[in-house]
Amino acid sequence: MSEGERNLLEKAKNGDVLAFERLITEYQKKVFNIAFRMVGNYDDASELTQEVFIRVFKSLKNFKEQSLFSTWIYKITTNVCLDEIRKRKKRKVVYLDEEIKLEENEVKRQIEDDKPTPEMIAEKNEISKAVNDAIESLSEEHRTVIVLRDLQGFSYEEIAKITSCPEGTVKSRINRARQALKEILKCKTELLDCEFVK
Amino acid sequence: MLKCSEAIEMMSMYIDSRLSNSEKATFEEHVNSCKSCSEELNELLKVVKLCSEIPEVEVPEGFKEKLYTRLMELNENEEGRSKTVQFWNKYLKIGSTVAAALILVVVLKGIWGNMSLLSSDKFTGNTSTKFAAKSEAKAEYAEPAKKEPNNFGIAKADEPVREQPKKEELKKEEPGAAAQRSVETPKMSASQASVGSPADNKNKNVNSKMLADSAQNGSESKKEAPKSPEIPSRSSNSDVIVFDKPKSNTIVKKDVAIAIKSESPPVVLEKVKTFAAANSGEIQPSNFNKTVTTSSTTMTASSTTTTTGSAAGAGSTLSIIIKVPESQYAVFTNILKSNIGANLMEIGSVSTQDMTEELDADNKKLDELNKSIKDAGDGKGGTGTQDVDSLKNELESTEKEIQQIKGSTDYIYVTITISKN
């Protein structure tokens, strides 16, 4: 942790909300994306991200710097998301307008960021949607490692810390998750037959 | 050469460049010569690539502002709460000291009371079992629990009531733990200050109630104040003696005799054994009869029971002693009645024996034996190793006896005698 960060952390521990917000700015996007890909719903992800940072703020005193601050935050993120997923399993609520909203937002973002052609957007959307759906139908554990490894790019060691699992477990989980994902995509689409790998 | 299953296990590591050079070489060698593995690898690579192309989304607008508002609200609540906490902390120190002192007084009183009890008359024939005491405590719990949803203030004031039966049981068993608990929870401490033995309770109740009242700042607590004195009177109505005699120091042994008449005793014996096993009953070995001193003569007479159940002497009368958990006793007897026939059975009443004296005697014996062994070892009394050995044997058997006595609480010893019709 840098000097500046440590300073902000101390202030935040004493209840300085502004200092806290400055401290967590760099983690916001990642946390939100993890939440988004874990629960598949934009609004829920927003709410969950809020909750993650509120939890972080409340438990700042418990942060003993035995791990990285970022690892600690992502750990809380994963836990919050898993709690939500489990809660949902019990409720089994289906959001009917979710898909449309998802696409709109995605298109918006993409236009801002990449400025690709409409055809490319449409195609990319299709694929993303298919992959997204496939990821969402994975088990909790598989979904977690795919999001952390293949979507967010965390290393095996980081994932082991975030999920509090031994590295060996992480290794085999990643392998099985990818195989599971492959099977789902194989059944549903012809994506894997297309020329994507150059 | 690598097997396909092994190669598949290595695929993700290969994709993420986590294989050592030699591992990588072995892997590639296999994949290059194995069509299915090579296909599998390609498919996994595609999956990974697709995932990596999923775009990152931006945090929604207004996110930071919303978070700011919520965190500020959180801070305000914390400040409000901290004032209450400071307020409570003041009384926590007073309250917990008073509570600890009271508990100490009660415990000492209890121990002293128990000692004088042993020296005077025995504590016998009391049908108040732990079970009854617990159900008493449960009734106490039910009342305050009902009130909780209505008013938080009342719920707080109920804590003196709720805590008392729990405390009474606890203090007899774990005085240390109870004292510890009073220090732990700040909220409870002021109300716990009202705990004490009923005899002394009234005076102390007034003092601690004043504390609780000022701390809680409510007329609700005054409304509840009359409640606590009810507890002593309630206990005196039932035959559950919860407060006067400390229970955990008394070891009791419960016995009952069941006599069965049957055409074929061995068959019935087998049935009994089966039912016993089904109801967590344990068949007792024959030498267990030693500590039984009830008036029923059939019990001491049929002391030839072995674990196989076949009796040698007494002709065609078989007997067996089964240790049944108290909770299962009713079930066990009902099953016997319905299978064997209630008309062929004679069930005696459960008698309770206070084993405390025996236990104390055994404990004393243990101390003496230990001392003798030590002396023999130091070369003081004894005439050699032989004495030490026999002393040690006696020690072992005394310890076994103690264990047996201690293990007899919460069980009923059912002696079943089956005689020919």
Report on this structure:
The complex is a heterodimer of chains A (198) and B (421). By secondary structure, chain A is mainly α. Chain A contains nine helices and no strands. Chain A has helices at 3-13, 17-39, 42-58, 69-91, 98-113, 118-136, 140-151, 156-163, 167-188. In chain A, α1 crosses α2 (17-39) and α2 crosses α3 (42-58). Mean pLDDT of chain A is 83; it is low at 97-115 and 194-198. Chain B has 421 residues and is of the alpha+beta class. Helices cover 65% and strands 9% of the residues of chain B. Chain B contains 16 helices and six strands. Chain B has helices at 4-15, 21-33, 35-52, 63-119, 130-147, 152-173, 175-184, 186-192, 198-216, 219-224, 227-237, 265-278, 297-301, 326-340, 356-378, 385-406; strands at 252-262, 282-283, 318-325, 345-347, 351-354, 411-420. In chain B, strands 1, 2, 3, 4, 5 and 6 form a six-stranded mixed sheet that branches. In chain B, α1 runs parallel beside α3 and α6 (152-173) crosses α8 (186-192). Chain B is extended, with a radius of gyration of 35 Å. The termini of chain B are far apart. The chains are: A mainly alpha (198), B alpha+beta (421).
Distance between the termini of chain B: 80 Å
In terms of quaternary structure, the protein is: heterodimer
Topology of chain A as a string of helices (H) and strands (E): HHHHHHHHH
* Number of DSSP E strands of chain A: 0
Provide the fold topology.
The complex is a heterodimer of chains A (198) and B (421).
Chain A lengths: L2 H11 L3 H23 L2 H17 L10 H23 L6 H16 L4 H19 L3 H12 L4 H8 L3 H22 L10
Chain B lengths: L3 H12 L5 H13 L1 H18 L10 H57 L10 H18 L4 H22 L1 H10 L1 H7 L5 H19 L2 H6 L2 H11 L14 E11 L2 H14 L3 E2 L13 H5 L16 E8 H15 L4 E3 L3 E4 L1 H23 L6 H22 L4 E10 L1
Parallel strand pairs in B: 1-6
Antiparallel strand pairs in B: 1-4, 1-5, 2-3, 3-6
